[in-house]
Amino acid sequence: MSDRASLKVERALLSVTDKTGVVDLARGLAARGVEILSTGGTAKAIRDAGVPVVPLEDFTGFPEMLDGRVKTLHPKVHGAILGRRDLESHRDQMAAHGIPPIDLVVVNLYDFAGAVSRPDASFEDVVEQIDIGGPTMLRSAAKNHASVMVVVDPDDYPRVLEVVEKGEEPGEAFRRNLALKVFEHTTRYDAAISTWLAGQVGDPPDTPPAQVSRVYRRVEALRYGENPHQSAAFYRDAHGAPSFLAAAEKVQGKALSYNNLLDLDAALGLAIDLGAIRDDVSCVYIKHNNPCGAASASSVAEAIARAREVDSLSAFGAVVAVNRPLDKAAAEVFTETFVEAIIAPGYDEDALEVMAKKKNLRVLSLPDLAAWQIPTATRYELRQVRGGALLQSADSTPRFPDEIGKAQTVTTRAATDEERRGLAYAWTVAKHVRSNAIVFAREDRVVAVGAGQMSRVDSVKICRLKAGEALAGSVVASDAFFPFRDGVDVLAEAGALAIVQPGGSIRDEEVIQAANEHQVAMMFTGVRHFRH
């Protein structure tokens, strides 16, 4: 038996669910005289390709049993993997028990995520896709990576073959990186299982889980975070295929920054929600994670122009989302003002030619139209605090577009149909504004936004400062209740005709009285959309 100084691959165990490239790998290994051990479908695929293979049951002298649940859980397998080549005692014990070493382990796991995603899969079907032998072999080999190469990613097959064909010693960094991939892979796998099982235990749907297991995969390193002295990277949810912002393709422009991505996510979220209440085109301008403009129209160009006009000063350097593809006319209107980035379902060739003149403009395409039509993003939102984390269900309930329809009129005067449509628009946007949020709107556009103030009255003052007389005849949404009547007084003075708010203040009667005095219609939704 060889010691570590002369380590080379003489025996390999191949057992994979994803058979991408495994036959070519087996053929290359066999050509170098490597003995190949394998199981089930992997062995059949290798054998059918004319490559010699030893069934694992012949190696262990023990048959596969229990419908395949037990086939690799054997001391001869794990002794061959876990034995340290640099320890004489290990080599002697392996020799005494007739355990030849396995130098290369190539394994990937049952498709558990695929089983969960099948709508017709029963609980028992999913449980059978919980791999036991595969993770055990991977962990054994990764632990003993000083003596064994372990491969879980088909993308690593070419490099492994190169090492074997040259007969060289696998470098320490290479072996450690392979081992790291294994533990990352099994971590994702276990997290997927625990997340699924947590949803099967019978707790009410909105009950926060007792333990949160989320795994994210790095998409790209970023130049820096919110500020140049902070390091940062963009990650996607490791469960399932990339979706929403993580699935978007960058068509042109500079690398995305940390702040770009935050604003793109905010823009995408509001554009999706506007699409849930309207059938036409909606455009959103975001600045510092708050909407500074939002509008809807029959054409993309008009929606862009309207949204930008809400606050043309703040629109400079903003991030934009449009829920329809851009044509040339829309691109020409869009590029009249400098913006950092745009995300849309697509762009025609003429539009891309126009945008190409703005070389630094970041242009993202998210062609999955379904993603633009459903008001949802995540089930839970997780936010770190010092020493722990806060988790809450996402503010994306299916009832959201209907909240205005179910709202209660609490004033003498009821909102007109046109005002109700405006209230629906304002209420939708207010959900995406940092509190204390005040949004003036009409039925197809925002008029002004007051965001992130410690006083709700100050948010109104900001709207008056930005929009002035344009507020007259508009309607208003407040993301939380008015604690005093002064908020209604200043809204009425600004020209608001109707207000929608959650209600629930101990001074609601005082607030309602103020609205009646001003002949302002007011509706209570009973739902708050605070965004802290």
What does this structure look like?
This protein is of the alpha/beta class and 532 residues long. The protein has three domains: 4-198, Rossmann fold, CATH 3.40.50.1380; 243-372, 3-Layer(aba) Sandwich (Cytidine Deaminase, domain 2), CATH 3.40.140; 404-524, Cytidine Deaminase, domain 2 (3-Layer(aba) Sandwich), CATH 3.40.140. The protein is 38% helix and 19% strand. The protein has 20 helices and 21 strands. It has a six-stranded mixed beta sheet with strand order 8-13-12-11-9-10. It has a six-stranded mixed beta sheet with strand order 16-21-20-19-17-18. Strands 3-2-1-4-5 form a five-stranded parallel beta sheet, sandwiched between helices. Strand 20, helix 20 (508-517) and strand 21 (521-524) form a beta-alpha-beta unit. Helix 11 packs antiparallel against helix 17, helix 12 runs parallel beside helix 14 and helix 18 packs parallel to helix 19. The longest helix has 27 residues, at 172-198. The termini are far apart. Residues 1-6 have low confidence and may be disordered.
CATH class value of the largest domain: Alpha Beta
Could you name the CATH topology of the largest domain? Rossmann fold
Total discrete domains: 3
CATH homologous superfamily classification of the largest domain: Methylglyoxal synthase-like domain
**Oligomeric state as shown:** single chain
* CA(first)-CA(last) distance: 64 Å
Strand order of the largest sheet: 8-13-12-11-9-10
Computed structural class? alpha/beta
